[in-house]
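CO-FOLDING WORKSHEET

Operator: S.A.
Ligand of interest: zinc ion
Run index: 609
Mode: holo prediction, single chain
Checklist:
[x] sequence pasted
[x] SMILES validated
[ ] output reviewed
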Amino acid sequence: MENRSRRHFLKNAAATAVAAFVVRGRRAQGALVEAEVSATPQKIGVFQYGDVKLLGGPLAQQFQRIHASYLSLNNDQLLKPFRHRAGLPDPGEELGGWYQGPDANNPGQCFGQYLSGLARFAGATGAPATLNKVKNLVNGFAETVPPNGYSYASVQASTFAPAYDLDKTERGLWDAYRWAGLADAKDLLARVVKGAVPYLPTRAYDQYENPVQSPADESYTLPENLFFTYEATGDAYFKELAQRYLLDKSYFNPLSEGVNVLPGLHAYSHINALSSACKAYLVLGDDKYLRAALNAWDMLEKTQQFASGGWGPNERFVEPNKGLLGESLKTTRNSFETPCGSYAHCKLARYLISFTGESRYGDGIEQIIYNTVLGAKDPSGAGQFFYYSDYHDSAQKTYYWDKYPCCSGTLPQVVADYTVNCYFHSADGLYVNLFVPSEVTWTHGGQSIKLTQNTAYPEADSTQLRLQVDAPAEFTLYIRIPGWLQSPAKLSVNGKSAAVSSEPRKFAAIHRRWQNNDTVEVELPFTFRVQAVDEQHPNNVALMWGPLMMVAVNSPITIAGAALSSTGGLSRSPYTNSQFEALRGPDKIRFKPFYQVNEETYTTYIQRV
Ligand SMILES: [Zn+2]
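OUTPUT RECEIVED:
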């Protein structure tokens, strides 16, 4: 394997030099983040982390808490399994759990994700302490990697889930290179990937194929980051490697033809694999991969999602039309693998928005953030992390039974990504996707433009957008009109009603020559509605308030159907400045948005009688 790697390297050396120049040229011009050196143009661009700032509200608060939590991880402890393997001094206690220790089946497995999350926080905030931590972690890790690029923390790590570990380490180094400006991380990235190849299977295996080598592994998620490595290095070897791990036969081919092959599959990793399809579409230009991802999103929406937007009870997709989501409410408390699932979901949605310009994918981002990961219990600081959302009766938010699980790796990534979910940009304007106190700066027609958003959303159902321009600028402001809306949205510019279409599940488009301090007001009236868990359980319903899934607190679980409406006695009742609940008449049944539940017992699906 090593010889073959060397042949590829030499064969491509000349091409590499040329391609690397192109990569640098494109980057210097501020090309699209997720589309650098891509064959297929995107309609809409994803912002870079530093372009958007969160200014307040629940998303910003969680962003700050999670940033601080991962900043406080001890570098020696994070590097310990790698230093131990390299025979270097390895001070610090073992972290335990999945990370290191006698019971760790996959030592060091989240290192790359912690690095990735921190690099994104560094990119988003420019915080010197975070930049410094990323640098120290990369340097410390580099010291443990021998010339042949072997980077696994142990023999166990290189045999249990070599593809999973490589995928995460690779992304961590790429993010450190890209968002923390560590040029050295790029060379290390290339070396680490080449060093891992001898430990990978020869092609992508789905888990049910039960490959002899590492049956629990997720080799089918490798291509996305291998394509990023190809773009970063210009080395076609990584492009060929990415193509080797595309799960065409059993997954992308049937999905591209509309065949629903999701049932039974491991949920998170197969949604994550769809990002590989999206990246393959960008780099290879084959629209089979686009069709596979678009069709899978449809299947997800129509057959797999709970009211929260989460999916995959017990981490598996269900057979459609058999009432299995409803059945799962009685049989498991592992309803949705929250940090990992929401991370993969939002990443996929960003690709699909960028390809199609359709707001439905933005709806999906809003739904899953507010109703799943925003409600994740904060890390304990002692290695305990939130993993599953529980939609069983009388649930409580708990930590996973073992320390440092996979969801500890995706949590900082999905939360740092809140910034890049808020806005998108195109040649003709700006897309407002999330309603969050925030500001975004971008360039249009050669001038820098800033939009500041003021809102108490989702604790209020309106937002205000103010533009700052040095000179009048003509462009379109696209505003997502959510699919859940039941009464008309209202849009106004400088106090005057905007005469534009504001159809739900579309972007409203306000085109004008914008002046400094022009202000757009947006009202999105929240209403109560109920959503059945599936067609076979029409009376097992979740209560929704605008974008929010409301859960019954300390609840009885049977309610007369007519009571679950405004006319039946439900009313919104603010009880502090930042929180609210819905009260149900004299019985005082309290509902809260899932994200505001702390230690209380709650019930997500109410039995309607
Ligand atoms: Zn997980």
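REVIEW:
Residues 337, 339-340, 387, 406-407, 410 surround zinc ion (CB under 6 Å).
The CA atoms of residues 233 and 490 lie 48 Å apart.
[x] output reviewed
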